[in-house]
Design brief:
Helices cover about 50% and strands about 10% of the residues. A hairpin with a 4-residue loop joins strand 9 (about 165) and strand 10. The radius of gyration is 32 Å and the shape is elongated. The protein has three domains: about 5-115, Phosphorylase Kinase, domain 1; about 115-300, Transferase(Phosphotransferase) domain 1 (Transferase(Phosphotransferase), domain 1, Orthogonal Bundle), CATH 1.10.510; about 405-585, no CATH class. It has helices at about 5-15, 20-25, 70, 75-90, 120-125, 130-150, 205-210, 215-230, 240-250, 255-260, 265-275, 285-300, 350-360, 370-405, 425-435, 440-450, 455-470, 475-485, 495-510, 515-525, 535-550, 560-585, and strands at about 30, 35-45, 45-55, 60-65, 100-105, 105-115, 115-120, 155, 165, 170-175, 180, 320-325, 340.
Length: about 600
């Protein structure tokens, strides 16, 4: 049965007809089956949502109640039931779980997981555009949820910020499958071709035109949602739903970087691919999108626990008696530097020259107590200055030695062409967010090139350099980088693992699939050096996926025998990646 156009319009906009407003009831205090209603927490086009207690299990639930006027409409009653039965197929950490579908005293309800927190729309209103690490986390979780639904033939049809719930622990829960369509349930489609449902701000072109849809329509809506949370506004706005729908059908969205320059080009391309006009130009599955997202996250990841910027400031000047000055007040206040008691009014404190002058002023004869103190101070000061100079010379020599021995600086292109930043972290961020694609190798080399003493930033820069060289299909330089990293005297476990992974990458480029399986298998199975760096795990996943694609090419020798081992390795790496990312997010 085709829905009444007026009611469909009301549902899309969230507005209720007058009869709906008149029929609204407060069910607080009622007991519906196993559920005691506590209070109203929300309203929508088809129903109300209450906080309730499940009596038997003593847990809070969200109780979605269908409004009375929709009960008499078979199509809407059917849709309400399909929402529950469709989502009940899924058991996914990023999808709101359905507990029960029931009816009591003529009231139809769905009991669902109660998510304490806010939805993404509310969060965006308060915060504006999101920091990129948080945005990537939300993208990964929401994409996994929509992918899980698509794998069992479900289309959400109303993906938008309001339907992405954020828990207090930072987990995303996709909610409200009220417009969902089950592609595997023949004869149970509650909407038909030619019927438009959803929310115009996030609606795919085919959905806006009432054309047939599949899971790629949800990917489009997901892309518009991602665009909104990264930039701070949706790609299109208009004065009416019709004008907005036409923009989705006809107009190309502006680049995210035009509105937010710090967005990496790879992330910009990912989101714009999600919101391509033609379904065939989009990602063909959520898994495909998540693989690219994982690579981007690998490019942007930093070493967990690297919370301090490298400081190269000189040590403080020696002082006579040091005391802390009171802290300033107000925003951005900090403790003042230690001050030296006994310094002259003009400032500058006791220097060796001033101490010598003071000694001369004391006159000849047996030194007085004040003179003895001054002499002692001069000795201490001179010794401290000599010691500091010696340490400074040693540090300079060490920096020069490290600069001469930092791996791969001769691999080219010339890293000196990259602009020098103030510190190692800024140099890393420049390569990560600003450097053009053609200059990525040089930009990553510039991190150890300019700051060889900063291991915490040089090490991840070598990982990103390896991924760039691999994607450029330069097997010789990948091999050379592996060799130099392995001989790096500052190397740690993760660098040894990087060398192993780079050798596997060379194997992929040279089509040595058996070697890839052996090397990556040893890396994953190692108990002495468990793989725990998120970027390295992502790199391994990329290599296995590429190796699988190579075995699927026509004429690939031994492909049938290699695919099962690669598929098993991919599964193990994906599990490892989920575990490592969970720990990484907890650390952050």
């Amino acid at each position: 049965m085709k829905p009444d156009p007026q009611h469909a319009s009301n549902e899309r906009t969230g507005a209720w007809p007058e009869s709906s407003k008149a029929a609204a009831r407060d069910l607080t205090g009622l007991v519906l089956g196993d559920f005691r209603v506590q209070r109203l927490i929300g309203r929508g086009g088809m129903g109300e949502v209450y906080l309730a207690d499940q009596i038997s299990l003593k847990r809070p639930v969200a109780l979605k109640v269908l409004l009375p006027e929709w009960v008499s409409r078979p199509a809407y009653l059917s849709r309400f039931a399909i929402e529950a039965t469709a989502v009940a197929k899924l058991n996914h950490p990023n999808i709101v779980q359905v507990y029960a579908l029931g009816e009591a005293e003529g009231i139809h309800y769905i009991a669902m997981e109660y998510v304490e927190g806010a939805n993404l729309r509310e969060y965006l209103i308060r915060k504006g555009s999101l920091d990129l690490p948080l945005a990537l986390s939300i993208m990964r979780q929401a994409g996994a949820a929509i992918g899980a639904a698509g794998e069992v033939g479900l289309i959400h049809r109303d993906v938008k910020p309001e339907n992405l719930l954020l828990t207090r622990k930072g987990r995303i829960k996709v909610a409200d499958f009220g417009l969902c369509r089950d592609l595997e349930s023949e004869g149970h489609h509650v909407t038909q071709q030619g019927t438009t449902m959803g929310t115009p701000l996030y609606m795919s072109p085919e959905q806006a035109q009432g054309h047939a849809m599949d899971h790629r329509s949800d990917l489009y809506s997901l892309g518009v949602t991602f665009y909104h949370m990264i930039v701070g506004e949706p790609p299109f706005r208009a004065d009416s739903a019709l004008a907005l729908a036409l923009k989705h059908v006809r107009e190309q969205p502006p680049s995210l970087r035009a509105r937010r320059p710090d967005v990496p080009p790879e992330l910009d391309r990912l989101v714009l691919k999600l919101i391509a006009k033609k379904p065939e130009d989009r990602y063909q599955s959520a898994a495909e999108m998540l693989a690219d997202l994982s690579r981007i996250r690998g490019l942007m990841t930093t070493i967990a626990g690297a919370t301090a910027v490298e400081f190269t400031a000189l040590p403080p000047s020696p002082s006579l008696v040091v005391e802390a000055a009171p802290a300033t007040s107000g925003v951005g206040s900090a403790a003042r530097s230690a001050t030296t008691r006994g310094s002259d009014p003009a400032g500058g404190g006791w220097t060796p020259a001033r101490l010598a002058a003071a000694l001369s002023a004391e006159g000849s004869g047996w030194p007085r107590p004040r003179t003895l103190i001054a002499m002692a101070v001069l000795g201490v000061t001179a010794g401290a200055l000599l010691g500091w100079r010696q340490r400074a010379d040693e540090r300079a020599a060490e920096r020069g030695r490290l600069a001469a021995t930092a791996p791969a600086l001769g691999l080219g292109p010339r890293w000196e062409a990259a602009p020098r930043m103030e510190n190692a972290e800024q140099q890393y961020r420049h390569a990560q967010l600003v450097a053009p694609p053609a200059g990525l190798a040089a930009a990553w080399l510039a991190v150890p090139g300019y700051f060889p003493e900063s291991y915490e930033w040089a090490s991840p820069a070598y990982l990103q350099l390896g991924r760039v060289l691999y994607r450029e299909r330069d097997a010789d330089r990948v091999r050379a980088l592996a060799r130099e990293v392995r001989t790096w005297r500052s190397r740690q476990t993760r660098d040894e693992q990087l060398a192993d992974v780079l050798e596997a990458a060379e194997g992929v480029l040279r089509r040595d699939v058996d070697g890839v399986i052996g090397r990556l298998g040893r890396i994953v199975e190692s108990r002495d050096r468990p793989l725990s760096d998120p970027g390295l795990v992502d790199f391994c996943v990329e290599l296995v996926v590429d190796a699988l694609h190579a075995t699927e090419q026509p004429g690939a020798t031994g492909a049938a025998a290699q695919r099962p081992a690669l598929a098993t390795l991919r599964g193990r790496l994906l599990l490892l990646r989920n575990r490592v990312l969970t720990v990484d997010l907890a650390v952050r």
